[in-house]
Amino acid sequence: MDRVKRISSEILEKYQEKFGTNFDDNKKVMSSISIVRSKILRNKIAGYITSYIHKQSSENDSIIASEDEES
After folding, report:
1. Residue 36: its pLDDT value, please?
2. How far is it, in rounded angstroms, from Cα 13 to Cα 22?
3. Range of 60's domain?
4. Alpha carbons 71 and 52: distance in angstroms, whole number
5. pLDDT tens figures, 2-57
6. pLDDT of 49
7. How far is CA 17 from the centre of its chain?
8. What's the DSSP call for residue 18?
9. Torsion sign across C-alpha atoms 33, 34, 39, 41
10. Main-chain phi, psi angles of 48, to 5 degrees
11. How far apart are CA 28 and CA 25, in angstroms?
């Protein structure tokens, strides 16, 4: 597992409720909860978390939609 994914998963274990699907908001959250000296690394982590949250949100929406169709 590469560094961005490892760090992102560690952060999401503790602070998942603070993150959303907005990249700029996630960058601000990253700045407030951690000390990442590299701007590039911070942006990569925030981007990975944003795409992960967005993907999870999309999967949940499709599960709900399929459950509604079955009803």
Report:
1. 87
2. 19
3. 3-70
4. 29
5. 999 999 999 999 999 999 999 999 999 999 998 888 999 999 999 999 999 999 88
6. 96
7. 10
8. G
9. negative
10. -65, -45
11. 5
- Please report the pLDDT score of residue 46 as a whole number: 96
Helices within 1-71 (DSSP H only): 3-15, 23-33, 39-70
Provide the token pair at 57.
Answer: 């949100």
CB 54 within 8 A of CB 25: no
Q: Which two tokens stand for residue 33?
A: 């909860």
Q: Provide the number of structural domains found in the chain.
A: 1
Give the CATH number, domain containing residue 39. 1.10.60.20
Query: Can you tell me the distance from the alpha carbon of 58 to that of 25, in angstroms, rounded to the nearest whole number?
Result: 19
Q: Is the pLDDT of residue 71 over 60?
A: no
For residue 30, the model assigns a pLDDT of 93
Q: Report residue 59: phi and psi, to 5°.
A: -65, -40
C-alpha distance across the termini of the chain, in Å: 40
